[in-house]
Amino acid sequence: PKFPGLETHHRVLAAKDEQHGCSVHFVTEELDEGPLVLQAKVPVFETDDVHSLIRRVLEKEHMVFPLAIRWFCEGKLYCNDGTVYFNNKVLERPLQLTIAHKTELV
Predict the structure, then answer these.
(1) Whose CA is closest to 83, among 2, 22, 5, 25?
(2) What is the pTM of this model?
């Protein structure tokens, strides 16, 4: 993620970024430093304030977190010695939320 940690929405708006989003990662001792699993993006509009951006990102969080948890519980997603595996293959980069993933949430 571009802005790990807290107050990310404020920092995105201050930087005038065109995108923001959320990430799921395995937890380590360092804040937001664990291996990435899944990400989702939202556009940042000129009319956005912190609250509108938070709402849009939260909608994506409500999709990616349950999906990653489901994959973990089903054994599709796991981490071994800092390496993330998805469907028994090394995950080279985080998965991106797509329409296909959204159908898994139903």
Answers:
(1) 25
(2) 0.83
Q: Identify the DSSP state of 86.
A: E
User: Tokens representing 58?
Assistant: 């939260």
- Write the single-letter amino acid at 70: R
Q: Tell which wins on pLDDT, 13 or 33.
A: 13
Q: Using CA atoms, how far apart are residues 39 and 98, in angstroms rounded to an integer?
A: 10
Question: What is the distance between the alpha carbons of residues 57 and 20, in angstroms, rounded to a whole number?
Answer: 7
Helix (H, G, I), strand (E, B) or coil at 22: strand
Tens-place pLDDT, residues 14-67: 999 999 999 999 998 877 778 999 999 999 999 999 999 999 999 999 999 999
Phi, psi of 95 (to 5 degrees): -70, 150
- Considering the four listed CATH numbers 2.40.50.840, 3.40.50.170, 3.40.50.300, 3.30.70.20, the one that applies to the domain covering 8-97 is 3.40.50.170
AA identity, residue 47: T
- What is residue 18's three-state secondary structure? coil
